[in-house]
Amino acid sequence: EESEQHVCELSQTLAQSQDQVHQLQTLSQSQSVQIQQLQDICAKLKAVQEMNEFLQMENELTREQVVESERLLSANLQALRERNFECEDLKGEVCKLQA
């Protein structure tokens, strides 16, 4: 009877151990899925970071081009104003000569 009780206790312990193993396997699978999800998220974040860096460089280049365009436009506008003054002066001279 004592050995039967011992066998019964061992059977219960074995059943508990098997339950714990099953729980640990389930937890391990869940953690594996979470790890994969985190790895996927990290890969996406890296791609977003790279895109952001690229866009920042593009933005900086565009700003430099805009500054250069503004400088050229300003220089051209100044040159046109000077030519306009020269034309007005020449018109005045022509009027004087025709009079």
Give a quick set of tags describing it.
Sperm associated antigen 5; mainly alpha; 99 residues; Astrin
In short:
The chain is built from one helix and no strands. The chain is an all-alpha fold and 99 residues long.
Describe the protein.
The chain has 99 residues and is mostly helical. The protein contains one helix and no strands.
How many strands appear in the DSSP assignment?
0
- Radius of gyration over all CA atoms, rounded: 42 Å
| Portion in strands | under 5%
* Sheet of most strands: none
Instruction: Report helical residue fraction.
Output: over 70%
Class of secondary structure makeup: mainly alpha
Provide the low-confidence segments as ranges: none
Shape: rod-shaped
Amino-to-carboxy terminus distance: 143 Å
Protein name: Sperm associated antigen 5
